[in-house]
Amino acid sequence: MKLTTVVYAASALALSAGFAHADNHSNSDVKKALMDAQAAITKALAAMGGDAMAGGAMPSYEYPSLDGKQVTVVSWGGAYTKSQVEAYHKPFIAGTGAKIISEDYNGGLAEIKAQVEAGNVTWDIVDVELSDAVRACDEGLAEEIDMSILPPAPDGTSAMDDFIAGTLDVPCAVPTIVWSTIFAYDKSKMPNGPKTISDFFDADAFPGKRGLRKNPKANLEMALIADGVAADEVYDVLGTDEGVDRAFAKLDTIKDMVVWWEAGAQPPQLLADGEVAMTTAYNGRIFNAVAAEDKPFEIVWDGQVWDLDLWIIPKGAKNKDAAMQFLAYSTSTGPLAKQASWISYGPTRKSSSPLVGSYDGKPDLKMGPQMPTAPANFTNALQNDFEFWADNADELNERFNAWLAS
Amino acid sequence: MTDVTHFRDEKTGLLLASDGTPLKTKLRQSLKTSRRRAFMLVAPLLLFIMASFVIPILGLLWQGVSNATYEDSMPRSAPIMRAWDGSSPPSEEMAAAIVADMIDARKAKTIGKVATRVNREESGTRSLFTKTARRAAKMEAPFVAALEKADKDWANIETWRAIKIAATSLTPAFYAAAVDMKYTADGEFVEQSEERQIYVSLFVKTILVAGGVMLCCLLLGYPVAYLMAHLPAKTSNMLMILVLLPFWTSLLVRTTAWIAMLQAQGVLNDLFVFIGITSDDARFSLIYNMTGTVIAMTHILLPFMILPLYSVMRSIPISHVRAAKSLGATNWTAFWRVYFPATVPGIGAGGLLVFILAIGYYITPALVGGQDGQLISNFIAYHMQRSLNWSLAAALGGILLAIVLFLYWLYDRVVGIDNMKLG
Questions:
Q1: ipTM of model
Q2: With an 8 Å Cβ cutoff, is B130 touching chain A?
Q3: Euclidean distance between CA atoms B381 and B259, whole angstroms
Q4: Residue B371 and residue A260: Cβ atoms within 8 Å?
Q5: Do B392 and B178 touch, CB atoms closer than 8 A?
Q6: Are A299 and A184 in contact (CB under 8 A)?
Q7: Which residues in chain A have their CB less than 8 angstroms from residue B181's CB?
Q8: pTM (2 decimals)?
Q9: Which of A26, A303, B316, B379 has the greatest CB tally within 10 Å of its CB?
Q10: Homologous superfamily of A181-306 in CATH?
Q11: Mutate to test the interface with A, among B104, B106, B109 (most CBs of A within 10 A)
C-alpha cells in the first residue's frame, strides 16, 4: 500500500509538471518525450506487480490515440473544474493527444435542450446532477452509454460491481462524485458552535443570520430532519400535504434571519464577510475555503443531504467517440481517486477510496475524513431523492416562491 | 418669361411635367423611387431583425398557447382523451390507447417528455408515467385493470383529467397558470390553491417597482439635468462625464459594487456605525431585499432619465424664464408655469425609457434581490433555464409584453407619443 502511494505521488508529480507544458501541444517533441517517459514508467510499474499499478495516476488504459481530435468538456467552474482538469484532463490529453476545451455552466438542462433541439450540439460531455441526468435520459437529450466500456478496477472487479450500488442505474450517465449539502459556521466567531441540524434552526441558542440556498431542494429535507423526522422517513413525510406544511413551518421559525444564496461560491463568501453566522453550502466549497484559504470554517455533517454528479453525453454530440473515451478514462479508478485529492467530493468507485491520499501540497491534510461518505460524517445522512423532486419540483417551487414573497 | 399655360393640359386642366405627363403621376413615380431606395437601405437591418428577433419571439410566444408534446408522442390516445367527458369512469378504449402509446413512446425515448408535460398539470404523475411505461409492454387486456394494478394512482380520476388537459395541444392552460388560475378538464378556470398563488402579485410588484424606480430617477435626475443644461460649459462637461462614466461601466460591475457598498459589513453600514446612527449589532439590511433592488436599479437607470431631460432642457431658451420674471412672476411661478411645462417631453421620454427598461430588469434583482426583491423577469428566466417549462415562460413573457404595449398606448392617449423627445 505504501509503495502504491509513493509511486502514485511520484507519477502524479511527473505528469502535472510535464503536461502543464504539453497541453498547449505546440511542441510535439516535448510531448513525445513525455509520452515515452510515461510509457516507460507504466512498464516499470507493471513489472512491480498488480498492486503497484492500482495507484497509478499513470493511465494503464490503452485507448486509441486521439491526435487532432477535440472534446468539449462542460462543468461547474471554480475549484471543482480545477480538480477535474488536474485529475482527468491533463493525463487524458497526455495519454491520447486529444485537445480538451473546458467550458463552465451553471447546471440545469436548458442549454443541452436548446442545443439538441436546434440540432447543433457543441458540448460533448457535461457534468450534471442526478435529477438532471435522469431527466435528460428520459427525454432523449442524452446518448445511451454502453457500460461495458468502463474499465474494471485494478484488482479485476468489474465496473458494475466497483461503482457504489445503484449509481450506475441511469443508462445515459456515469457517476463521478458524491457531493453533499451540509451547513458550516465560522469557529473563530462561535467557539461553541452548533453540533446538529436542529441547532441550525435554533435561533435562541445560536443567534445570527443564516444562509440558505434559494431553492426548496435540501431545505425542506433539512427542516424535517431538524424537526425530528428520521432521515429514512423524510421523503415519506414530505410526500404528504401535512409534511410539506410541517417543513415550511420549521423554515418559518428562521425566515426573518435568512440570507438566500444561489451560486455555490456564495456561502463561503457570506461566512467570510460575516454576513451570516452559519450557512448551508456544498461541502467541497467549504473544504476549499479551509484548505486553500485557511478560513476557520467548520462543517456540521449531521443531517447532510447527499447527491451524485454524473457525466452525460448530449444526444448528437459532434465528438461522441472521443467523449466516450474521455468518460471511460475519467471514471476509472485512478483519476477518480486523484480528483479527490483536489476537492472533498467522494469518488463513486469503491476501489478509488483506499487510494485517496492527502490534499494537494498539504501532506498533513488527509482527504479521507473530509468526504461526505466517511463513516463519521455519514451517521445521519439522507440521499436526495431525484424521483421525488422530478414529481414535485414544479409544485414545491411555486409554493416555496410564494412563501418567500409572503 | 415662360408661358404658364404651356404646362397645363388644356382639356383636364391638370398640371403637366416638362415631358407632357401629368405632374401628379410624375410625382408619384419619383416618390415611389425614393421609397424603394429607402426600403433597400433599411432592408438589411429589417431582415436581420426579422430573422434574429421577431420570428424567434413569435415562435416562443406561440409556445405559450400551444404545446404538442403529448400529441406528438402519444398520437393514438390524444384524440380519444380529448373526446372523453372528464367525469365518467375511464373506458377500456382510453386505457388500451394509452398503453399502446406508452410502449412506442418508451422505445422512442419520449416518454420522459410526456411525463413531464402531464406532471405540470398534476404533481406526481411523472414517476407514474415512467414507471408504468416500463411495464406497459407486458400488459394484457383489460387495460384499465392492468393500469390500476400497475399503480393505484391510475384509479384516481385526477390522473386521467390531467392527461386530458395535456392531450389538448392548443391550450389556455399556461396563460391560466401565469395568472394563478387553473384550467380544468371541464374547460373551466378555477383559482390556484392559495399557497401556490404567486404570479399576479409578482406582476403587480414588478409594475410598482418599475414605477418607483422611475420616480426616484426623476427626482434625482431632474436637478442634475438642470445643472448640466445651465451651468457654464466647463462645469457641465465635468458633470456630464460623471453621468456617463457609470453609464459606460458594465452593468454587472456596478451591481457588484453596490453589494460591497450596501451589505451588512459594507461601506455604508460601517459609516453608519462609525458616526453612531446605528449600533454594531443592529446594522441596516440594505441589500438582498427590495431596498437593495430599488437602490441599485435607480442608480443603473439614472442616465436614461438624465440624458433625454438634458437634451430637452438645453433647447429651452433661458430668456423665457427671464421674461416671465421681468413680467412679475416669482421664481417658483416662473419655474412651474414656464420652465417645467417645456421639459415635459423630456420627462415623458426619460420616464417611459426607465419604466420599460425597469419592468423587464433581470440581472440586478437576481443578484441583490434576495428574498423579496425578485421581479417577474427572474421567474421567466427560472422557467426557461431551470424548470424547462418554456410554455409557462412564454405565457409570462406574453403577458409582460401586453402590459408594456398597453402602458405605451395609455401614454400615447394621455400625453401623446409625439410629445416625446429623446434629444
A1: 0.74
A2: yes
A3: 22
A4: yes
A5: yes
A6: yes
A7: none
A8: 0.78
A9: A303
A10: Periplasmic binding protein-like II (3.40.190.10)
A11: B109
